[in-house]
Every structure is written in structure tokens, then in C-alpha cells.
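Reviewer 2 asked us to include a model.

Predict the structure of this chain.
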Amino acid sequence: MDTSSLNQSSLDISRLSDSDKRDLQQQIGNEMQKAKLQDSIHNLTDICWTKCITGGISGGKLSSKEESCTQNCVERFLDANTAVLKHLEMMRGDMQ
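Predicted model (C-alpha cells):
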């Protein structure tokens, strides 16, 4: 059996039971959430690094100013995301 026919037979989800399909959908959803979280963390790191880290890192430590800026940047990012999520939940509730 060649690789393409092996991949086709192993990817045929129509052979799965309804329970297995639900489990697969849940697993895919979980992986998508992980990917979104990783993307958010990457964006947060990029934004806060660019904003706060102004000099070279000496001795493996941030300056107190850089550390404070980074902490504040992360907190503001999380606050903004929380506010947006709460607003979206309210909008979703109003639609129902």
C-alpha cells in the first residue's frame, strides 16, 4: 500500500462512530484554542519587548524600569482582553 492510499484510509472520518467524531471535534477545538493562546502570547511578547526593552540585557536581567514597564504592559494587555471578552459575552447574551 502506498503512502497516499494509507493517508486516505486513515483520514476517512466517515468510518468513525458519532462518539468518536464528537471526541475528534473536541480535540481539534482544543488544539485550535492552544494555537490561539500561543499566538496571543507571541503577540504579547513582541509588543511588550518592543515597547519596554530599550537597551541590552546585561547579566541576564532587565533593568528595574524595563521590568516595571513589562509587567505593566502585560497587565494592560490582559485587562484589555478581559474587557473585550466581557463585552462580547454581553453582546452574545443580548442576541439570544
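Residues 73 and 94 are 32 Å apart (CA to CA). The mean pLDDT is 84. We have added this to the supplementary material.
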